[in-house]
Amino acid sequence: MRLAREDRFDELEPLLGKVTHPARYLDHEWGAMEDQPGPFHVCMIYADTYEVGQPNLGIAILYNELNRAEGISCERAYLPWVDMSALMRERGVPLLSLETSSPVASFDIVGFTLAHELVASNVIETLDLAGIAIRADERDEEDPLVIAGGPSAWNCEPLVPMFDAVLLGDGEQEIVDVARCVRDARAEGLPRAQILRRLSKVDGVYIPSLYDVVCDESSTRWGYAVPRPGTDVPEVVYKRCIPDLAATEPVAQRIIPYMGIVQDRFALEVLRGCARGCRFCQAGMTYRPVRERPAEQVIDAVGEGLSATGYDECSLSSLSTTDHSQCAEILTQLNERARQTGVRISIPSQRLDSFGVDMAAAVSGSRKGGLTFAPEAGTQRLRDVINKNVTDEDLERAARNAFEQGWRRMKLYYMMGLPTETDEDILAITAAARRVLEIGREVCGRPRKGKGGVSVSISVAVFVPKCYTPFQWAGQLQRDEVRRRQQLLLNSAQDRDIRISYHDSDVSVIEGALSKMGRAGFDVIYGAWRRGCRFDAWSDQFRYDLWLEAGRAAGYDLEEVAAEAFPLDARLPWDHTSPGVGKGFLQREWRRAMGGVTTPDCTMTSCTGCGVCPTLGVSNMIAGDRHAG
Amino acid sequence: MPGRPPIGKPDLNRLRVSFGKDGRLAYLGHIEIINTIMRSVRRAGLHFSVGNGFARRMRIQFSQALPVGAASTCECYDLYLTERVDADEALAALADSSPTALAPTRAAYVGSRLPALEAWLTRSLWQVRILGSGAGFDAASLDASLHELQEVGSIDFMRGDTPRTIGLADTLVGWQARDVDGGRPGAIDLTLMTRSSNLGALRPAVLLDAAFARPCMGGARPDSMRVLRAGQWHEDESGRLVEPFDQNLLQRA
Ligand code: SF4
């Protein structure tokens, strides 16, 4: 039911003294748009706590774009922590927006950003707390339109029973087009079903209710989606793609939180996309092509962003910042300014080569915490399979360079359960860590005792096959086998200065199942939520047993779902949406992977035929010259 | 009373700024306030001094932490500037760069050798609005309970999981309770004067929790308490109250 738009903060206020971190619910932060004249109102939601959601750059971009648009206002909402939601339910207070404390159920559009698979149960929790019907087909004419987008919208099928529309690809223009379309259609008095039909004409918008799921011998057990008879929607909905990132506003973060948040610094997106072609990486496939902001724009925007926000640290964010063709120039210039103002510049990930180390050294100054590299796999054979184009020598050279430049702690990221992985690949992980440690001891010497020595920590994630990657057909490694290999890894370390941590294999099973399932998977998610699952990304809240139970009740063994491999020629549950990368390219990449053949980065060599550029009419936009490291 | 020394070198300009904390932000913690104000200072473009330590922190010192849940009209900080700008100009720049709910209200330069604010401002005036539906208490009963507490002389309470005791002889200076709206049941305005020392500071919520827990209140409990710090002073040896912006402290250009 659509609720009235009114300020209901006075109902929330008496609860603030009774909950943890009341600052999550206060609003009135610097930069928040308190003035919300509308008359068309959108609420953007990150379905996790304030401190996790507020740093999200995607929401910040959409918030600015919508508030800039004539006649449209945008507010934010986050999911209250369990203590607050319990009190709100007890007192009959619905979920409120931050800016005006209006019920979320009073908005014209409610938009979710799907940052990862585990947010699924929180979306249900959010809708329920807001008092909005959970299933789209149960909503009234006047109810808000519930839409979703973001990096994890790519296999949105298990979630789509909740969404009226899903926005694929770059959202900054798309969201405004969607808001305008809904506003105009409402003004014309169109019924909800017709509003959705009209929305389906907006570039990049997928309307799930206009597609039927068909299961036959050409598909997996999850079926595939086809346009519903009588609708004129496209068979495949392609993502929206901003051709030139430099033409968009670079400073997105304008709201400065009161409370400490995750990544509490000014973040600037220096480039979008990555064409290195790692075969496990969904972002690498779905954000193509590569679009860089020119150095001049980055440098000006950092200055503007820091003085507008008051932050003393700036992160140059992207999928691979050190791949920016003008990275060295940008860092040199920014460091020059930073030295004068006490500001710190950080880059989130390093390339595994000397250039990466040099760039890390450029931003670290005298602070040398840990330096992180991601070889992802232990042997050259497996790195070729996953197309991680680095060698043992690259790792050794980079490590030596880093120790010589003053680092003492090295962090290495790996994945376990990659296709074709054997015990030999696992043992090679600790062997690499030992080599790095030896190099460190050779360069830095061995301290007599305790402090000051070099150390290597290894962090091992469980590989989750994701849609639109060349590994989308692979099954996930079974949970018991993951545990055996984790033990094998632990037993092989044998040096106090090598620390090993690994991801919870139970969580990975659920991520894996959610990544594989089709529309019918919604019953599992709903069942899990009914049993109490929410905040699944928080280890103290995650309940594997309840998820398995929900799976069984819906007729699925989730461990089996996650482990299921799909035939290469099967029609997949997500084939009707596309980031522009062709299925043929992905199949070819799968075959090359199985043959251990690598594929180069098209921004450093020539086009490798992924299909994005011709399909979407875009191209890589590289500001300078890129060359392999 | 020995307190933390001022952090500024004598050649730095010590700008004293007072600000309010709006009721909506009552539940912000001290660290959150500090971080927010430091960002406001950066946005204001003032040339602040930076410490020599590893973290190169802004040289700024705050008055005593306001309890979470309390609003205020009279918080203070001292900001050390490397470049002296007109105090009114600095105030205007800070006002433009601060969230309205934490807006600065006054700024002036003070002597660089004065003691740090935190330990120097020892007296606080509080205004508490206590509301309870269905009543069960009034100003007279609360007054009686506070007198009983004063005779007991101390309060045992929990801060998180840690048991604490605070003596009242020094910390509770005085109070006045009156019924709101000519005797509406369960609505009291309490004015409270407290004194802090290096032994501790008395928080209004701690005092009132203890007062309502006394048998003479007959189990009555307020539904809500709105706490506002309405004044802060230094109490000198003679017991005289000195304002943070006392004429004798100000430094003329
Ligand atoms: S179409 Fe070619 S140039 Fe464009 S992103 Fe794909 S591989 Fe690179």
Q: What is the fold's blueprint, element by element?
A:
The complex is a heterodimer of chains A (629) and B (253).
Chain A: H1 9-16, E1 40-46, H2 50-53, H3 57-68, E2 72-78, H4 82-91, E3 109-113, H5 120-130, E4 145-149, E5 165-167, H6 171-187, H7 192-199, E6 205-206, E7 211-214, E8 224-227, E9 237-238, E10 266-269, E11 271-272, H8 282-286, E12 291-292, H9 295-309, E13 313-317, H10 327-341, E14 344-346, H11 354-364, E15 370-376, H12 380-386, H13 392-404, E16 409-416, H14 423-444, E17 455-462, H15 479-493, E18 498-502, H16 505-516, H17 522-530, H18 544-553, H19 558-563, E19 577-578, H20 583-594, H21 612-616
Parallel strand pairs in A: 1-2, 1-3, 3-4, 4-5, 9-19, 10-13, 13-14, 15-16, 16-17, 17-18
Antiparallel strand pairs in A: 5-6, 7-8, 11-12
Helix pairs in contact in A: 1-4, 3-6, 5-17, 6-7, 9-10, 11-13, 13-14, 14-15, 17-18
Chain B: E1 13-21, H1 30-44, E2 60-62, E3 70-81, H2 87-97, E4 104-110, H3 117-120, E5 123-131, H4 139-152, E6 154-159, E7 162-167, H5 168-171, E8 172-179, E9 187-195, H6 204-213, E10 224-235, E11 241-242
Parallel strand pairs in B: 3-10
Antiparallel strand pairs in B: 1-3, 1-4, 2-3, 5-9, 5-10, 6-7, 8-9, 10-11
Helix pairs in contact in B: 1-2, 4-6
The structure holds iron/sulfur cluster (SF4).
Iron/sulfur cluster binds next to helix 21 of chain A.
Question: Main traits of this protein?
Answer:
heterodimer; A: 629 residues; alpha/beta; Rossmann fold; four-stranded parallel β-sheet; 19 strands; globular; B: 253 residues; alpha+beta; Alpha-Beta Plaits; 2 domains; nine-stranded mixed β-sheet; two-stranded antiparallel sheet; 23% helix; elongated; binds iron/sulfur cluster
Q: Round the mean pLDDT of chain B to the nearest integer and report it.
A: 89
The CATH superfamily of the domain at 9-167 and 171-238 in chain A appears as: Cobalamin-binding domain
SSE string of chain B, helix = H, strand = E?
Answer: EHEEHEHEHEEHEEHEE
Alpha carbon gyration radius of chain B: 20 Å
Task: Please give the share of residues in helix of chain A.
Answer: 25-40%
Structural class of chain A: alpha/beta
Q: List cofactors, ions and other ligands.
A: iron/sulfur cluster
Helix and strand content put the structural class of chain B at alpha+beta
CATH level-two architecture of the domain at 9-167 and 171-238 in chain A: 3-Layer(aba) Sandwich
Q: Look at the structure and give the mean pLDDT of chain A.
A: 93
